[in-house]
Every structure is written in structure tokens, then in C-alpha cells.
């Protein structure tokens, strides 16, 4: 009978281990879902950030408008005498 008791104890031990692994798997699956959702949200946010339909200056804007925007953004910076003369 001792062999039968040992076998039963081993079965119970393996069942506990399997239950612990099931619990760990569920936790990892939940973290994976959260990570996937965060990645999808980040991708959606990146897409919205890259496309700005109401932007005043876009690729199709006239060159003069683009240059004016560039100059307004960097007006206060010192790039040397040549660029300062161009900005005036």
C-alpha cells in the first residue's frame, strides 16, 4: 500500500502544479491582451498625430508659405550672418 499512497501523493502534487501553471497562464494572457491593446492604441495615436488635416501648412502648400513658416519658427535663432540677412 505505501506505493499506492506515494502515487496518490504524486498525483495530487502534479495537480497542484498544473493548477498553478493554469493560474500563471491566465495572468500572462491578461498581460498579453493589455499589451496588445496598448500597442493598438499607440498605433492609432501615431496615425492621428501624423495626419493633421487642419494643419495650416502641408506638403501641397505653396513654397512661399513653407518658407514663411520655417522663418517664423527659427526667427530668434542665430545661424550666422548669411541666414540672419535672409530672415530679415
Would you kindly provide a written description of the structure presented here, covering whatever features stand out?
The protein is mostly helical and 88 residues long. The protein folds into two domains: 1-51; 54-88, no CATH class. The protein is 77% helix and 0% strand. It has three helices and no strands. The protein has helices at residues 2-50, 63-74, 81-87. The longest helix has 49 residues, at 2-50. The protein is rod-shaped.
Helix tally? 3
Rounded mean pLDDT score: 80
Uncertain runs are: none
Distance between the termini: 101 Å
Helix amount:
over 70%
Derived from helix and strand composition plus strand pairing, the structural class reads mainly alpha
Number of E-type strands:
0
**Topology pattern, helix = H, strand = E:** HHH
The general outline is rod-shaped
Strand and helix layout:
Elements: H1 2-50, H2 63-74, H3 81-87
Keywords:
88 residues, mainly alpha, 2 domains, 3 helices, 77% helix, rod-shaped
Please summarize what this structure is:
The chain contains 3 helices and no strands. By secondary structure, it is mainly α. The model has no long low-confidence stretch (mean pLDDT 80).
